[in-house]
TrEMBL record:
Biased composition (Basic residues): 311-320
One Pfam short name: Transket_pyr
Region called Disordered, residue ranges: 299-320
Residue stretches making up the Transketolase-like pyrimidine-binding domain: 2-167
Domain of life, per lineage: Bacteria
Transmembrane annotation, as ranges: none
Protein name as annotated: Transketolase family protein
SMART domains in UniProt: Transket_pyr
Species in which this protein is naturally found: Streptomyces amakusaensis
InterPro entries: PDH/Transketolase (IPR051157), THDP-binding (IPR029061), Transketo_C/PFOR_II (IPR009014), Transketolase-like_Pyr-bd (IPR005475)
Amino acid sequence: MDTMRDRFISTTSQLLDEDARLAVVLADISADGFRPAQQAHPDRVINVGIREQLLIGVGGGLALTGVRPVVHTFASFLVERPFEQVKLDFGHQGTGAVLVSAGGSYDWPAGGFTHMAPGDVALLDTLDGWTIHVPGHPDEAEALLREAVRGEDRVYLRLSLQQNDRALPVTGEGFLTLREGRSGVVIAVGPMLGAVEEAVEGLDVTLLYATTVRPFDSAALRRATEHASTDVVIVEPYLAGTSTTAANDALRDVPHRILGLGVGRAELRRYGQMAEHLTAHRLDPASLRQDITGFLGGRWTGSDESPSSGHRGRFRAVKP
């Protein structure tokens, strides 16, 4: 199976042949993969080098001319380092673009903390008008990319080496209901689906699958809680609790509890491998099952020493 990043490169190269409005802006990352496309379209595949602020500035300038820019590098260099440019060159200017990241939260642990971006979605959440896609499979990444380039809006497509074994039909709108139950609602975001499915096997829960997390599908969550418990667990492949505010807002008029599971705030300073980071943040199936069953059973007691404890066990039960 190819990776999401491989699929992004091949799909975007094809789209450059089909759509003269499209341009790709790079900052060295994936430049080799786009070399054939750059040779075919030298005026629409632009590599600015390791200059991330310029990367966003060029994308914003192209957007002002009517071009649909696809801007790409690692998440930490695409969202975090040039955040002021993202805020001003797209949001303030009222222009659109498709930002496509690689690297996820810790795809390349040997690169150290400079190449990790577990806070990217939370950071973009401070800005208005961004659609955020978090695919869990290369086929989903391709479908969401093709949908994004057709529009005029601001889109962030978050790619990762972590991926599910199968693709599901995604359209860029709303959550998918994979199963229904009465003991609670579990939302699995993008590449977390495989681990979550294993974690909730045999449990009487509703399972929702989210690949488009902004706008947050409040209607799907409300439907899921109409005839079941309003205990909600959100499992995200980035900063724990990123979507708890959105879920709280969706259920603001009904008693509910929410547990946000994801990447913790503590920096893990040993390189390790991606699987070891998942385990350290309690995002492996066994840890997820323990935390989900404990929360839904009312016995979960978060520990401040847990890597992801910043948003665990902190939501007071308001159900009668």
